[in-house]
């Protein structure tokens, strides 16, 4: 009897395994109409799912779907399991009745109202805007059961909007209670026993260089001149993994977020503030635990040897980028000798890197100047200067060196799984339209090999600097590139020109860096344990990174719209930054704020058609074209905060005089 039961159980387990293998894993995308589509990797067509077949899944959830049939070329299916929810907290309003309360979400995507027991209201009243968290949703329940975690006040409109953006992209507004309790218990005391395990470099000159408003200092640089005339330069990184116990609640919370999110007025940190801003932050005049790469370099920047391992440091000074840039330019200031030597070596490393094939796209960072309430009152444009490049080059050196070291470690003749940061070679099919477009401006491309492509890119980027076409060619060039991601399958980093690359230098704000620290420590201690879920973790971190980037873009867009509300009806010079069949986008020169000029607003001027190969709209009667990179004048006609979008209208310029289009004139009548 026992054997028969065991056999039945095994048969049942095999059937269940076969059923699961017949199902597909993907992300549920719910359209505004309510229809669902499960996006499965490497599947050409998404799987259609009717609303009745969501099985309690919500937009963005990772689900397991079972195929039930086909409709045309598209397969149809039902959701049979929710693997992971994209978000569990939502912004919306409370609706109170006599005996019960409901939460109604503000989401543009269709989703059910949530039942909120009176005991979970947390003093919320009828009509209040709140944040609600799903507690449970059993099969027998038509609606999820939720609790109110925050009440949002109308006077905090901008604050509410930033919170909603974080929730929209799956980032919780708080850490789990258990994770916070674990963080609070971590001692900031460094024992003598721990110090003895590490290389002590506290007596070596060490400093940090960060943005003026930074609070978490991931990295520090140390410098000393050796007796043989070479330089010893250390790159010291906060030893987050020392405080983050594997599979603890704190570790799970950090992995779930996988990254900090930087919105215009706040940071949503990957780790609780006590860890990111206190325990692990390499603050000046404090002993700190670090993981380091220490290099011996010749005065010409040649690496003679390097050392990897755990250290204890004592930062002598905290520099801002602006302070270091002033020292570089004036050759005066604190530690000027050391900074000027470091800068010389960094510039030489940068030159060699570009010579080897790294692509040198210029970068500008637009930041808003905010008042005490978070309202944007100005725009600041930050460019990459030598002070930024100094830190960048030494961080690249550390990341590359760690990746090269780990790539050589093998177990049973196989390379150990490492979360490499890869950037694939350009796709020739995607590149060809850009090559054709660049050729119209006189720039020739050699596409015979990836190295030849990078050389062509750098030649073009040097030549276009300061020319009218610079903006459009840089933006289009970036768009032709593959997206960088994390994976254990190393193919190198094309954009940087590195055969091996990983992220090691920012463990306070990126989880892959924590993973690399742990792997490196295991290899140093000769006690490596293969992580069979490495690729799955890499994929999760890449997805979280993309979500964070989308959240950051949404936050910046909100502040753009909020700022441009002050200029409704005013006219500005702008640059066409994108073109589609329904209009073109213009970024104002003065504010770097982007809005749409709808093709409808141009209909009385001409009948415009989208010419994809030329990235332009062309008038069928007049031949007037609007091409990416063109400078034009626009009028700000609307700024919709709830939709985070701006509408512009084109105005014709005649010398310094601005003449309204016929569309605008007719409005005045």
Specify the overall morphology: globular
| Mean pLDDT over the residues | 90
Query: How many domains make up the 3D coordinates?
Result: 5
Oligomer: single chain
Distance between the termini: 93 Å
Count of strand segments = 34
SSE topology:
Layout: H1 2-21, E1 24-30, E2 36-39, E3 47-49, E4 62-71, E5 74-84, E6 89-96, E7 101-105, E8 114-116, E9 129-136, E10 145-152, H2 157-168, H3 177-185, H4 192-196, E11 199-200, E12 206-210, E13 219-225, E14 231-238, H5 240-243, H6 249-257, E15 261-263, E16 266-268, H7 273-279, E17 287-297, E18 303-314, E19 317-320, H8 321-330, H9 336-355, E20 364-370, E21 376-383, H10 386-407, E22 410-411, E23 414-415, E24 420-422, H11 428-440, H12 450-464, H13 470-480, E25 485-487, H14 511-524, H15 534-564, E26 571-580, E27 583-588, E28 594-598, E29 608-611, E30 616-619, E31 625-627, E32 631-640, E33 645-654, E34 657-659, H16 662-668
Helix pairs in contact: 2-15, 3-6, 9-10, 11-13
Characterization of this structure:
The protein has 669 residues and is an alpha+beta fold. The chain has five domains: 21-84, OB fold (Dihydrolipoamide Acetyltransferase, E2P), CATH 2.40.50; 89-178, Nucleic acid-binding proteins (OB fold (Dihydrolipoamide Acetyltransferase, E2P)), CATH 2.40.50.140; 180-356 and 384-422 and 490-553, no CATH class; 428-481, no CATH class; 568-668, OB fold (Dihydrolipoamide Acetyltransferase, E2P) (Beta Barrel), CATH 2.40.50. 31% of the residues lie in helices and 30% in strands. It is built from 16 helices and 34 strands. Strands 11-18-17-14-13-12-19 form a seven-stranded mixed β-sheet. The protein has a five-stranded antiparallel β-sheet with strand order 3-2-1-4-5, with no helix packed on it. Strand 12 and strand 13 form a beta hairpin. Helix 2 (157-168) packs antiparallel against helix 15 (534-564) and helix 11 (428-440) packs antiparallel against helix 13 (470-480). It is globular.
